[in-house]
Amino acid sequence: MRLRLHGLEQLCYDRAAPTPPGARETLRIAFVSVPRFACAVEAQARPALAGRPFIIGDADQPKRVLDCSAAAGEAGVQPGMPLRQALGLCPQAAVLAPDPVLYRGKWEAALDALDEVSPEVEDAGLGRAYLNATGLDAHYAGDAGLCRRIAAGVREATGLRACVGLAQGKFPAFAAAACAAPHGWRSVPAGEEASFLAPLAVELLPVAAEIAARLLDFGFESIGEVAALSRPELETQFGKEGGRLWQLVGGIDPDPLRPRQRAEKLEASLSFEAPVAGVDVMVAAARQLLSRLRLPLRGRAARELTLAAELVSGRGWERRLVFREAVSEQERLGFLLRSSLTNAPPPQAIHGLTLRLGGLTGETGKQLALGERGRLQRQLQEAVRQLKARYGHSPIYQCVDVEPWSAIPEERQILVESDA
To answer: Among residues 95, 150, 274, 280, which one has the fewest Cβ atoms lying within 10 Å of its Cβ?
Structure first.
């Protein structure tokens, strides 16, 4: 099925046009996936859950499905689904409260293992990561050796088994992992991305749900059918996203790799001889931990503070605070600790408490503004630093010329993270 252009002149765009000297080359990307990550961690911690249908809720009093086991998935349960609907589809499923501290700790161990393989690792969420694999095949005796090394690193660090996809660009690598055998790997040779993607379902495309639904309404079932359309045809229907869609179905993903920043953190922990439930006792313990970090913190300030506790149920609890400005004063940090524990204490008694200070930076004096422009610039810089501390990367971007000679407007510039 072809879409009408309504009088638009058809232009010819060549996806495979030669890259001019000095232009960017597409990175060789490895995508790592641990399917149903939270459920895999729970099943590892509770062997009795193996093979059983179970659901992880989104909170202690869950309303939606955070993750579900393979058995529950076969009954039609999906992440994001209302819990009542999920139990209607799979009434025999056990419902578990989430343990974000456990999940995050396990995934951080996997990311640390991936750092040993590639210096550029992007955290794409629990159980998902992208690596810059450009040139690494030479160090691991080809694609097979590289993919096995990646999977082995994850398994050694976490005990979990991963799928690995290897290709030029993020989306082809993601699709390769999706097509791999369970706990296996799949590699797409450079230049064969479009032919590899052609028979795959359009639901695999990383586009907005509305665009995917419209493609299905138009009668498209495979990526290759969408790839048969020209760029103007897709842009007529989907606007700017149509240009990106045209690239994706042709095996090109311009989305850049966003390596995670491994910032230094200070941490102190203590355990209680008996479970502690009183907020005043928890606050006193948190202040004691803060005093232990006084010397390591000297001369520096923290942009984020994390309190973690081990509940009597064996599960984890965590509260993370990101400050508008870096804080170094012990009195201020102590006040923030007390406020956090008083307003949102752990839901159960705790066995131990951990305090972490992150986003460390050198203390700087505050200079009075000489003009409105200087004041606004400093406010902007501070806002960007705060957002970077909260999300792990800067969500503010700036345009940079990379291929000003390109006939395709979207390829003349790229967005790069701004540190203000």
So the answer is: 274
Is domain 23-33+105-260 classified as CATH 3.30.70.270? yes
Q: Indicate the pairing of strand 54-57 with strand 94-96.
A: parallel
Residue 247: Cβ within 10 Å count:
22
Longest dimension (CA), the chain: 78
pTM of the model: 0.72
Note the pLDDT of residue 360.
82
Query: Nearest CA to 53 among 63, 64, 39?
Result: 39
- Check whether domain 266-362 has CATH 3.40.50.300, yes or no: no
Return phi, psi of residue 101, to 5°: -65, -45
Give the single-character DSSP code of 130.
E
Three-state secondary structure string covering 316-374: EEEEEEEEEEEECCHHHHHHHHHHHHHHCCCCCCEEEEEEEEECCEECCCCCCCCCHHH
The CATH number of domain 52-98 is 3.40.1110.10: no
Please list the alpha-helical segments (H only) found in 116-169: 143-158
Contact 398, 413 (CB under 8 A): no
Whether the Cβ atoms of residue 166 and residue 30 lie closer than 8 Å to each other = yes
DSSP state at residue 64: B
- Nearest CA among 284, 290, 283, 288 for reference residue 267: 290
3-state secondary structure at position 11: coil
**Token pair listed for 413:** 């510039």
Return the SS3 of 121. strand
Block mean pLDDT (10 aa), the chain, length 420 = 34 41 65 96 93 89 91 95 95 92 92 94 96 92 94 96 96 96 94 96 93 93 95 92 94 91 82 90 91 83 89 87 84 88 90 89 56 62 67 69 62 64
Parts of the chain belonging to CATH 3.30.1490.100: 266-362
Cα distance between residue 333 and residue 341, in whole Å: 12
The Cα–Cα gap between 90 and 322 comes to 39
Residues 193 and 168: beta-carbon distance below 8 Å? yes
pLDDT at 128: 97
**CATH 3.40.1170.60, the chain: domain bounds:** 52-98
